[in-house]
Design a protein that fits this description.
single chain, alpha+beta, 3 helices, 6 strands, 30% helix, elongated
Length: 175
């Protein structure tokens, strides 16, 4: 079993946002692309006068083929979180004010089902298979990398940090 990491996507935002909406956007994206979502870690530190500090780790996993699996790890760190009441379209809503840093790391796991482990012959076959399907690994890397960029663009749009269109939409010829 080997892993092939993708490039890290980083998002930093400071201002007022709807954290519940952000949480729902990530889970909704995961459901749309058939990823399993797990909350790996959650930390809440004692608030200081500026606000609370929180950390989350979310893991999204998917079996892409019989040989490849995808993992996307979100590391979210927020500072100075305070709940604020904001009037939106005549209604009062409770939103979150603070700074948020998101790191999105993806990786491809080869032979995730461990079909090529357990004996020397199976391990030899696994090395042969990995060499024979090296181009497919590159293709899988591209798919995962552009999915992460698509998710990154959705999050930037959520925080109103970019235009309504992004250059990677439709790259994988999906909806």
């Amino acid at each position: 079993m080997g892993t092939v990491p993708t490039k890290r996507a980083i998002l930093r935002y400071s201002g007022i946002f709807d954290f519940d909406g952000l949480y729902a956007a990530v889970i909704d994206w995961a459901k749309n692309y058939n990823f399993m979502w797990h909350e790996v870690d959650y930390k809440h530190k004692v608030p200081n006068p500026l606000g609370a500090e929180q950390e989350w780790k979310w893991l999204l996993t998917k079996e892409a083929t019989e040989y490849y699996a995808y993992e996307i790890l979100f590391t979210v760190h927020s500072y100075d979180l305070q709940e604020v009441s904001v009037e939106v379209e005549g209604k009062t809503r409770t939103l979150t004010k603070g700074r948020i840093y998101m790191f999105i790391d993806g990786k491809i796991i080869t032979d995730y089902a461990k079909k090529f482990s357990g004996s020397k012959f199976k391990e030899w076959m696994g090395k042969y298979y990995a060499k024979a399907y090296d181009a497919d690994t590159s293709d899988q890397w591209d798919k995962l990398h552009y999915r992460i960029l698509s998710l990154h663009a959705i999050l930037k749009k959520y925080f109103e940090m970019q235009t309504q269109k992004h250059p990677y939409k439709g790259y994988l010829r999906e909806n």
